[in-house]
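User: Some background: our group keeps a shared notebook of sequences we're curious about, and every so often someone picks one and asks for a predicted structure to add to the entry. Today it's my turn. The entry only has the sequence so far, pasted here. Could you supply the structure so I can complete it?
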Amino acid sequence: MFYYTKLEILDTVFIPIRSMMADVQPYRKSFSFEDGYTLETTYRAFCSLESLLQSNGYVQIGKDVFIILDMKEWSDYVELYLYRCKSDFALEVKG
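Assistant: Of course. Here's the predicted structure to add to the notebook entry:
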C-alpha cells in the first residue's frame, strides 16, 4: 500500500478530529437502498486498523468531504468505500 494521501476524520459538526495517511484509489461500486436510491462510490481508501473510523462517518480529503458508505476490516488494514458529497455540503450543514 502507498499511504500518500492525507485523510481527516470529521466529527459530527464537520471539524477534523484526527489526520492520517491513506492509500486512496479511484473505484466504482453501487450501493442500492430499499427506497430506490442508488449511490455510486467513486473512491476507496486503505487505512491502518487503529484509525477510529465509523461506517456512515465523514472524512475529508483536500477540499472534498466524503461519507463512508461501507468499511471492510482486513488483517492489517481497513478498506473504506467513499461517496463524495456535493461541494457545498459541509457549508450547508454548518449554516
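Suggested note for the entry: The chain is about 5% helix and 55% strand. Residues 23 and 45 are 5 Å apart (CA to CA).
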